[in-house]
Specification:
With about 350 residues, the protein is mainly alpha-helical. Helix content is about 55%, strand content about 10%. It is elongated.
């Protein structure tokens, strides 16, 4: 057997574990430990989804605490599980225990297979990750401006969505920035960002011009915190969506759209830190203004600046053009700026 280590690097040696030292006498979990194990699975059996807590006639636990690797394995189980990965210092560690309903517990104990062991082991790791991430994020406040955006999205009309200016999927280049994420998540982020990015930027510009930079830095801090804990891109996306919804109680789809928007901002910060977030907090919004001008005509670089110079400095104007060029939104040829179009 081998011991699981969440943050093990490829160069770290794999620790071999002997069943005779890993398996120790059964220890009944304390009430606090039992409650923690139930909360880790979200109060639902992770295998069948049945409730593990009853609130009729007072709170009653309907769960049983199962050992993922048995504390007293039979000879057949020792042979069956001889090459598996185990978690915790020994069989009585909380890392080796999970809350299940009675039926699923009995079925697992009496009909155990390698496949079922691996499924339960992975479920336990996911439940731990989810629980720990929620605890980590619970202390983070949410910006008022994010709540305002969510409120507008939740109450948006269909005709408003149809009339929105969309970014091109080619220009977004999200696929190259989300390497390793699932195709379904990549596609969802692409579509939501293309549809709503300019709409959300416009809300920040018109109503929260002073706070956008702090929102972006706040989300970047959340992202880096979760990333440092070893969570992958898909987990981080789900955790931030859940955090936004738990803090605001807003529409689930609106929360996903905002997470897609924020995830693009995080990637902007990671890939172009000196090209976007070194700007004054209001300068980012001129990306939208420049695109609006270019949607009507191509412009000489200096002609467009003369149109906008009352509201933006030359240095910021050039920086914003560099940003738009870096993300493939514009073409600059012989001082003429054009919106990039795709067949």
């Amino acid at each position: 057997m081998k011991r699981y280590k969440k943050d093990r690097s490829p160069s770290d040696p794999i620790e071999e574990v002997d069943v005779s030292t890993y398996c120790i006498s059964r220890k009944k979990p304390t009430e606090n430990e039992r409650l923690l194990l139930i909360l880790q699975v979200g109060t639902l059996c992770p295998l069948c989804g049945s409730n593990l807590i009853s609130k009729s006639k007072g709170i009653r636990y309907l769960s049983e605490i199962a050992h993922i690797f048995p504390c007293n394995p039979t000879e057949n189980e020792k042979h069956l599980l001889k090459d598996v990965v185990v978690a915790g210092n020994d069989s009585e560690s909380l890392e080796n225990k999970i809350a299940l309903c009675k039926n699923c517990h009995d079925n697992y104990d009496y009909h155990k297979t390698i496949s079922e062991y691996e499924t339960l082991f992975k479920l336990k790791r996911k439940c731990e990750d989810d629980y720990n991430a929620k605890g980590l994020l619970s202390s983070y406040p949410i910006e008022d401006s994010i709540e305002a955006v969510l409120n507008k999205l939740s109450n948006i009309r269909l005709e408003d969505i149809d009339s929105m200016t969309k970014l091109s999927l080619h220009a977004l280049k999200i696929r190259t920035k989300m390497e390793g994420a699932s195709p379904l998540l990549i596609k969802e982020v692409e579509e939501q960002v293309a549809q709503y990015f300019l709409f959300i930027i416009d809300i920040f510009k018109n109503e929260y011009n002073k706070t956008f930079d702090s929102v972006a830095l706040h989300i970047r801090a959340l992202y880096e915190t979760l990333n440092a804990k070893g969570y992958d891109k898909e987990q981080i996306f789900d955790f931030i969506t859940s955090w936004i919804q738990s803090k605001t109680q807003e529409n689930a789809m609106a929360c996903k759209i905002v997470t897609c928007f924020l995830s693009k901002i995080v990637r902007f910060m990671a890939n172009f830190p000196n090209k976007i977030f070194s700007l004054k907090e209001s300068s980012l919004f001129y990306m939208l203004e420049i695109k609006k001008h270019l949607s009507k005509n191509d412009f000489d670089v200096w002609v467009l600046y003369n149109i906008m110079k009352e509201s933006i400095s030359l240095a910021d104007y050039i920086e914003v053009l560099v940003c738009l060029y870096a993300i493939n939104e514009i073409i600059i040829e012989d001082r003429i700026i054009k919106l990039r179009t795709y067949a």
